[in-house]
Amino acid sequence: MSDHPTPLPPPALRFGYGTNGLTDLRLDDALGLLADLGYHGVGLTLDHMHLDPLAPGLAARTGKVAARLAELGLGVTVETGARYVLDPRRKHGPSLLDPEPEGRAARAGLLTTAVRVAADLGAHAVHCFSGTLPADTTAETAWRRLGDSLAPVLTAADTAGVPLAVEPEPGHLLATLADFHHLRSLLGDPGPGLLGLTLDIGHCQCLEPESPADCVRAAAPWLRHVQIEDMRRGVHEHLPFGDGEIDFPPVLDALAATGYRGLTVVELPRHSHAGPQLARTSLAFLRTLTDPSGPAPAPAVTTSVKGAPAP
What we know:
The chain is an alpha/beta fold and 311 residues long. The protein has helices spanning 27-37, 58-72, 101-121, 139-160, 177-186, 201-207, 212-219, 248-257, 275-290; strands at 14-18, 41-45, 75-79, 126-128, 164-166, 195-200, 223-228, 230-232, 235-239, 263-266.
């Protein structure tokens, strides 16, 4: 008998789908769809159509969503990328870098609210991003604003026991993995249990110098949330699997090898018109790569108005 036990295999990946790609569905219907298809969880974007973070009765509404998630057995990450939730005229505005202190405070307030919602939902992280560099603002000033704006959010996250997961976003001040580490340094390295990373696999293909699989390995100690979709080099366009350039088997192998236990969420925010179908085909694609001998893909999903055929 060997003195060395056989190493355990890496844990299986847990797949989710983002509600920002299901905006044509009511939230309750979207959650039911994902559970029926066999997803492990959901990336829940707080927005006016899905658990509006600014409408009255948030605590009670959050409680109902928490009960629904528990009923369906779905895990959750809270995402904060709603385009116009704070300002109906400025996409993703105001940001943590806004020239006006009131604007920065509004964004920090939204993130603090997201932390409370995440705690009530039992979410494993709150996703966020920096925002773009405002006109007539130096990078030095913007980084200072970012650190100052995140300070109260990190305090709330520490109290709630829910880590932030900052996403490097093409075109933003914090655009790359190197930028994430710069923020960590500015904040005195709060540690991955408090300030972690959202790694978007498509963004790695878009602009990182290393391959997406190498990005996964480099980011492993800080991973708190993962988003996945196809993409082409130099073009920030989220694409269904197979429509871009990413070689996914090495990416998924690298992700499994890290021992990451959060959700890997399909991120197709501009494809809501085909959300139910893409949710089905995306999970079938990922299952084929991670467990070719596993269960057959879920049946096709059709939606219709009661009493009328599906279009």
